[in-house]
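Field log, afternoon session.

UNIT: design team B
ACTIVITY: writing a sequence onto a fixed backbone
BACKBONE:
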């Protein structure tokens, strides 16, 4: 497993990455992304699937780091009703993402360069392979529809751009599942810092990410990021239909 930030260890991993980079390089999301930073008040934020690394029953907590190293990130998520843009209180917000080396808790055996692992995951019915819970958590939105998490900026793994998964529900009713994205410039800056720099800069970026393509730019899923005294803060408003 590649959990120490090393580059792919085997020739197979290196060849796989080169092939995927070449194939995905034919995708161009720029036109979609130009219109995706904002979303019309009468449209919900772009939906996406849970992905292969979702685990239900995340710990209820604000700080989800569990000591994982990485650039500090305060993630503030606000849920509002589509159309009226009124706050959605008492909603459950779940977040999960990989660590600085591209590894997910619960699925550490797959590492960051072992794509495609879908056959193995499918045979296991996507059951976790370990009991770790780092970088997973849930919170309940307050009266202003807001929940926040203290985390780190995610790393990257083959073949995805940097992203954070978010799931919003209320009274066990799913309202939205989406992925949050960051600018390629921001990701490149973070990947130049330790411990991310040990793994190197990602060849997989927003302009050729397949999930961004399928979501037509993923409108409404792009947080506003600003520096803070000890890291960065990312704010995003998610428009949901209750």
């Amino acid at each position: 497993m590649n959990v120490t930030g090393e580059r792919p260890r085997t020739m197979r991993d290196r060849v796989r990455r080169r092939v995927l980079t070449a194939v995905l390089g034919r995708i161009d999301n720029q036109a979609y992304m130009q219109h995706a930073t904002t979303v019309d008040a009468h449209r919900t934020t772009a939906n996406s699937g849970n992905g292969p690394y979702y685990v239900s029953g995340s710990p209820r907590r604000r700080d989800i780091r569990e000591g994982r190293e990485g650039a500090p990130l305060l993630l503030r998520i606000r849920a509002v009703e589509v159309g009226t843009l009124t706050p959605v209180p008492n909603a459950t917000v779940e977040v999960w993402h990989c660590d600085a080396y591209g590894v997910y808790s619960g699925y550490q055996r797959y590492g960051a360069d072992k794509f495609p692992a879908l056959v193995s995951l499918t045979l296991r019915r996507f059951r976790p392979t370990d009991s770790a819970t780092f970088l997973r958590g849930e919170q309940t939105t307050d009266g202003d529809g807001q929940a926040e998490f203290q985390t780190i900026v995610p790393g990257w793994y083959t073949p995805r751009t940097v992203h954070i998964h978010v799931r919003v529900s209320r009274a066990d009713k799913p309202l939205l599942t989406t992925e949050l994205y960051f600018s390629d410039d921001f990701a490149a800056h973070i990947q130049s810092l330790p411990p991310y720099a040990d793994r190197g800069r990602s060849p997989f970026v927003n302009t050729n990410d397949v999930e961004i393509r399928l979501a037509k730019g993923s409108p409404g899923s792009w947080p506003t990021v600003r520096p803070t005294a000890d890291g960065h803060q990312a704010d995003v408003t998610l428009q949901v239909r209750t």
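LOG NOTE: The radius of gyration is 17 Å.
NEXT ACTIVITY: expression trials, pending approval
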